[in-house]
Amino acid sequence: MSSWSRRTFVGTSLAALAACQSPGNSGGNASSNAPTRVNLPPPSPPRLPMGTVFKGEAKFQQLMARGRRENWARQPLGHRTATVGRALIGIPYENFTLEIDDRIESPSVNFNGLDCWTYYEIALGCARMLKLPEQRQTPLALLHMIEIERYRNGVCNGSYTSRMHHLEEVFHDNERRGLGTNVTRSLGGERLQRQVRYMPTVWRSYRYLRNNPELVPELERIEARISTLPVYHIPKNRVAGIENRLQNGDVIAITSTWKHGYTSHVGLALREGSRCRFMHATSENHKGRRTIIDGTISSYLSERANRAGIIVFRPVDVFA
């Protein structure tokens, strides 16, 4: 799961407001009274045809129309993200949907098939977009939302190495730019230390790297930097005790016991009363290889020994 990508939107740049959400034991989503202004980069210039970078537009238009009809925009971002996430349930699981060209990297969206990473990013991107005027709720705008989330400093420069391939770097980069808060440590998380070695060892699995093996040394340097990040997780034996503090729409990354990587999976938190369930795109055949609403997060962790715990990232709104 350590690799995926996105694409561009040409038009006006966004001046953003990030409405911070404060944690609460009830699991609701409360907006801060003092929004933080975030300066977002403009969309990158288009590099690949729209038919290559955006798949499933009819599903996208239906989703946005439903969101407007049911006034999802009135909800706080976390609840709105969970609402969009529920609307995406049932889409088949598909890996490598971001490997769309031999050389040119570009933000992309595929509503016909999702993996765990693209599921959470599309749900979050669409949720943020619902705060835009209707005429700006376009495929191009979603591509820009994906770009600011998934590329280092929010910018795709056309190179595969501008895409972040590890969730711990995404969370660090997004928090630094004011797009959310990693709340793991405040929930009692403890420090993890890993020597990340993944992309350079599996480079033949990825279309871009097979065609551009000269990028592998740069990925080694990036992973060396990621290895020095301060990463915290909540061990699985403590997760049940903090589930009541998780909020709708929190991004939940599953940490791994593997010594050369931090995370192995990702999804969204969904509150149902006192319970907090795990929404995600699963590749497991016995769960249907699709986007699903699973059991509680703590019960999901208990299913496999190599699921070590969770990282919790809480995004904020980005809108014009």
Structure described in brief:
With 320 residues, the protein is an alpha+beta fold. It has helices spanning 50-53, 57-69, 77-87, 116-129, 139-150, 167-176, 207-211, 216-226, 236-242, 297-302; strands at residues 15-18, 21-22, 30-31, 36-39, 54-55, 109-110, 180-182, 190-192, 231-235, 251-256, 263-272, 275-281, 291-296, 307-315.
Secondary structure: elements and pairs:
Layout: E1 15-18, E2 21-22, E3 30-31, E4 36-39, H1 50-53, E5 54-55, H2 57-69, H3 77-87, E6 109-110, H4 116-129, H5 139-150, H6 167-176, E7 180-182, E8 190-192, H7 207-211, H8 216-226, E9 231-235, H9 236-242, E10 251-256, E11 263-272, E12 275-281, E13 291-296, H10 297-302, E14 307-315
Parallel strand pairs: 5-6
Antiparallel strand pairs: 1-4, 2-3, 7-14, 8-9, 9-14, 10-11, 10-14, 11-12, 12-13
What is the beta-strand fraction? 15-25%
Give the beta-strand count. 14
Oligomer: single chain
CATH architectural arrangement of the domain at 37-180: Orthogonal Bundle
Q: Helix and strand string, N-terminal first? A: EEEEHEHHEHHHEEHHEHEEEEHE
Total helices: the number is 10
Low-confidence blocks of residues: 1-28, 30-35
Structural class: alpha+beta
Query: Superfamily at the CATH H level of the domain at 37-180?
Result: Putative xylanase like domain
CATH class of the domain at 37-180: Mainly Alpha
CATH level 3 topology of the domain at 37-180: Putative xylanase fold
The largest sheet, given as strand count, sense and whether it forms a barrel, is: 8 strands, antiparallel
Overall pLDDT = 89
Q: What would you call the shape? A: globular
